[in-house]
């Protein structure tokens, strides 16, 4: 996986390159928005990390230009500005996620992983969560030993919904909406039953964590 | 009108106007009643007196001189004719002898002395008496004790007031000569009738003047109310504003007298807004200047920690990381606190916010930290909506949860709640930590206050931020005991209508 980093601060840039390298990513760093197009023309990137406060053309302008040109590249904004306006603005312009400085490297890595996963799901119809490979087209989940998990229709729907938002809490109401058609009715308890069966079938490959009063979260392990 | 903003002795314009109008109007009313009294009562009194004097002249006509030179009063067959028609009684019968029927007969005969009271006409309540006397004081006829009027003599007539036999009397004395001898005829009548008439007249005057004054006062009140309406509109406009609003006031409906006040107020508002914008701009820059090097420092330390295998160095790096984290945390808190100030957001920032959705977002972002300490982080949400600034309430909840995470031991439990309490939305964070003693519950809200035993990570600003944001949402921040266990329960009670 190759990531393009647009960050003018050398200390931050260097740390991100090294930090993401240990997470298994190859990171190319540039210091301004003007250098981005040359890189994109020659190399395929899975993700771009863009700092908003760049010298010359700023991050907003870069995001706007990339999206106007029709680039499907997932964009993660990192910024020192945490105002709601900035956040909304960046997301409206077409950025995929937003991270406020100062952040911890593992958090950055997690955001990158989620964004790449989402982009892959859209293009390759496949997602990887932990040691689980989820084949969206074939509607099947395969663990690292190559074994195809035998899931019921509802268990599959729950896994698919959780995988689409992996690392994020998914509310029970949302899961109910995901697994039933509009004329069916299902209780919260029924969801718990389906989730506990799904959990047993997943085993060590991935973890479905229950969050009291809220819902569930799919974690890598 | 909210009275709590009103100083006790501040005079209202309306009250002052009324006061300044009422006092002169009252003086005017007294003066006009007095003038009316003079205009109507004096001529009436004079006509009463004239009637009385006619009686005296009539009696004088009956004084005759005997051939021996002595004076005597000729006795008429009947008393003097009625002096004036009654105003409220039927007129006296013109035939017959009324005195035979209605009272003791009165003969002008010296032999009849002492004279008893004589009714002037049937049914009259006033009594009449007379005295014919010589200049030496000798009484020829009539009541001997009747005093003679001592007032100024005009056309041989003098008038006066006296009290005789415990009766208030009006007296008229007529001086004339009979056969060359001077005599004084004094007549007197009780003042009952004229008093009644005067009282009635005064009542009518008082009533009509009072009604006039009330009408004028009513008109004044109406006029003042109408004239002050633009002021009231301005007051309502100011009171309807959000307390944080820095929008200039409209000049359109403002009367000329108040316009300079509104204009200077607007100038002030613009100044405040400009300085607020400048402050926000400064904060944005400061945030950027602080956060970027902190990010570099933090990330570099993380990389260094990964690359170092020397245990002693690892420990030093960990301590460095702790300090950098604390620095970053404090910088964030300071920025948050500055931006939570009421001047930092306008009424346009207030939107409808679902508290349960907010709790979901905050738990999502803090879940990893809770899991790292094996803390059971959960929610218990009922539907609740408030009117607030989204990122401020987000900041508030983050700070409450951050505070709870800091004080909850590993393996503990934290619950976020929202719902309606007596119709008012509330937000609650309950932890299973050691709780906050009652004595410290006020102090922990102060800036930079750090409770005894708190770890080095705390900036002492978290609850101050919560307090500040709570205030800007007109909510109440309460620190309570946990429902179960010894922990703290932080509660934000929002106003019902928000």
Descriptive report:
The complex is a heterodimer of chains A (221) and B (498). Chain A is built from eight helices and eleven strands. In chain A, the strands form three sheets. Chain A has a five-stranded parallel sheet, sandwiched between helices. Chain A has a three-stranded antiparallel sheet with strand order 6-7-8. The two termini of chain A are 21 Å apart. Chain B is an alpha+beta fold and 498 residues long. Helices cover 46% and strands 19% of the residues of chain B. Chain B contains nine helices and 15 strands. The longest helix of chain B is centred in the middle third of the chain and has 49 residues. Classes of the chains: A alpha/beta (221), B alpha+beta (498). At the A-B interface, helix 1 of A face helix 5, helix 7 and strand 10 of B.
Descriptive labels:
heterodimer; A: 221 residues; alpha/beta; 43% helix; elongated; B: 498 residues; alpha+beta; Helix Hairpins; Heat Shock Protein 90; 3 domains; six-stranded antiparallel β-sheet; five-stranded mixed β-sheet; 9 helices; 19% strand; rod-shaped
Topology at a glance:
The complex is a heterodimer of chains A (221) and B (498).
Chain A: E1 2-6, H1 10-22, E2 26-30, H2 36-42, E3 47-51, H3 59-68, E4 75-79, H4 84-93, E5 97-100, H5 105-124, E6 126-129, E7 132-135, E8 140-142, H6 153-164, E9 170-171, H7 172-179, H8 188-202, E10 207-211, E11 215-219
Parallel strand pairs in A: 1-2, 1-3, 3-4, 4-5
Antiparallel strand pairs in A: 6-7, 7-8, 9-11, 10-11
Helix pairs in contact in A: 6-8
Chain B: H1 13-60, E1 63-65, E2 71-73, H2 98-102, E3 118-119, E4 127-133, E5 139-142, E6 157-164, E7 167-178, E8 181-190, H3 192-227, H4 229-240, H5 259-307, H6 311-340, E9 350-354, H7 355-372, E10 376-381, E11 385-389, H8 390-407, E12 413-421, E13 424-431, H9 462-472, E14 476-481, E15 488-493
Parallel strand pairs in B: 10-12
Antiparallel strand pairs in B: 1-2, 3-4, 4-5, 4-8, 6-7, 7-8, 9-11, 12-13, 13-15, 14-15
Helix pairs in contact in B: 1-3, 5-6, 6-9, 7-8, 8-9
């Amino acid at each position: 996986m190759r990531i393009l980093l647009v960050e003018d601060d050398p200390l931050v840039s260097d740390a991100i390159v090294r930090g993401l390298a240990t997470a298994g990513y190859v990171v190319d760093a540039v210091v301004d928005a003007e250098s981005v197009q040359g890189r994109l023309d020659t190399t395929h990137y899975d993700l771009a990390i863009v700092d908003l406060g760049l010298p010359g053309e700023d991050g907003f302008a870069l995001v706007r230009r990339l999206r106007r040109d029709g680039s499907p590249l997932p964009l993660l904004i990192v910024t020192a500005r945490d105002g709601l306006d900035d956040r909304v603005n960046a997301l409206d312009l077409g950025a995929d996620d937003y991270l406020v400085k100062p952040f911890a490297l593992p958090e950055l890595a997690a955001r990158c992983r989620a964004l790449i996963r989402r982009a892959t799901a859209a293009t390759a119809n496949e997602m990887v969560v932990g040691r689980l490979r989820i084949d969206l087209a074939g509607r099947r989940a395969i663990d690292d030993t190559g074994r195809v998990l035998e899931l019921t229709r509802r268990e599959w729907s729950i896994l698919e919904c959780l995988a689409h938002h992996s690392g994020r809490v998914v509310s029970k109401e949302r899961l109910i909406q995901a697994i039933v058609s509009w004329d069916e009715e299902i209780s919260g308890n029924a969801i718990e039953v389906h989730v506990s069966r799904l959990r047993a079938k997943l085993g060590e490959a991935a973890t479905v964590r229950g969050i009291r009063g809220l819902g569930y979260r799919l974690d890598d392990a | 009108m909210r009275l709590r903003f009103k100083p006790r002795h501040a005079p209202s314009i309306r009250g002052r106007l009324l006061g300044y109008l009422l006092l002169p109007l009252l003086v005017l009313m007294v003066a006009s009643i007095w003038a009316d009294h003079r205009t109507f009562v004096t001529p009436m009194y004079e006509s009463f007196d004239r009637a009385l004097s006619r009686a005296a002249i009539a009696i004088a006509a009956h004084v005759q001189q005997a051939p021996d030179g002595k004076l005597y009063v000729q006795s008429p067959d009947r008393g003097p004719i009625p002096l004036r028609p009654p105003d409220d009684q039927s007129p006296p019968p013109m035939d017959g002898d009324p005195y035979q029927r209605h009272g003791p007969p009165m003969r002008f005969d010296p032999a009849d002395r002492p004279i008893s009271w004589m009714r002037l006409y049937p049914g009259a309540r006033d009594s009449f008496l007379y005295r014919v006397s010589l200049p030496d004081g000798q009484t020829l006829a009539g009541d001997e004790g009747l005093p003679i009027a001592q007032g100024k003599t005009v056309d041989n007539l003098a008038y006066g007031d006296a009290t005789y036999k415990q009766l208030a009397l009006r007296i008229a004395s007529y001086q004339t000569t009979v056969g060359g001898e001077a005599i004084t005829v004094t007549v007197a009548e009780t003042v009952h009738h004229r008093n009644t008439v005067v009282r009635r007249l005064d009542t009518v005057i008082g009533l009509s003047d009072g009604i006039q004054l009330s009408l004028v006062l009513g008109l004044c009140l109406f006029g003042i109310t109408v004239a002050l309406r633009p002021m009231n509109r301005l007051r309502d406009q100011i009171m309807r504003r959000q307390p944080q609003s820095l929008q200039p006031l409209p000049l359109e409906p403002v009367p000329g007298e108040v316009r300079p006040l509104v204009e200077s107020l607007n100038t002030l508002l613009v100044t405040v807004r400009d300085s607020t914008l400048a402050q926000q701009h400064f904060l944005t820059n400061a945030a950027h200047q602080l956060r970027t090097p902190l990010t570099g420092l933090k990330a570099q330390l993380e990389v260094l920690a990964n690359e170092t295998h020397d245990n002693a160095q690892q420990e030093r790096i960990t301590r460095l990381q702790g300090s950098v984290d604390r620095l970053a945390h404090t910088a964030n808190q300071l920025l948050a606190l500055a931006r939570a100030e009421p001047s930092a957001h306008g009424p346009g920032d207030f939107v409808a916010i679902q508290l349960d959705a907010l709790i979901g977002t905050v738990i999502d972002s803090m879940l990893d930290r809770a899991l790292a300490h094996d803390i059971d982080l959960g929610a218990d949400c009922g539907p609740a909506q408030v009117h607030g600034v989204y990122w401020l309430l987000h900041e508030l909840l983050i700070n409450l949860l951050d505070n709870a995470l800091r004080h909850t031991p590993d393996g503990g439990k934290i619950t976020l709640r929202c719902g309606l309490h007596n119709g008012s939305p509330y937000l609650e964070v309950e932890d299973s930590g050691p709780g906050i003693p009652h004595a410290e519950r006020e102090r922990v809200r102060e800036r930079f206050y750090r409770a005894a035993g708190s770890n080095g990570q705390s900036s002492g600003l978290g609850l101050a931020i919560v307090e500040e944001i709570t205030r800007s949402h007109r909510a109440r921040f309460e620190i309570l005991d946990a429902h179960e266990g010894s922990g703290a329960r932080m509660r934000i009670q929002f106003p019902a209508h928000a």
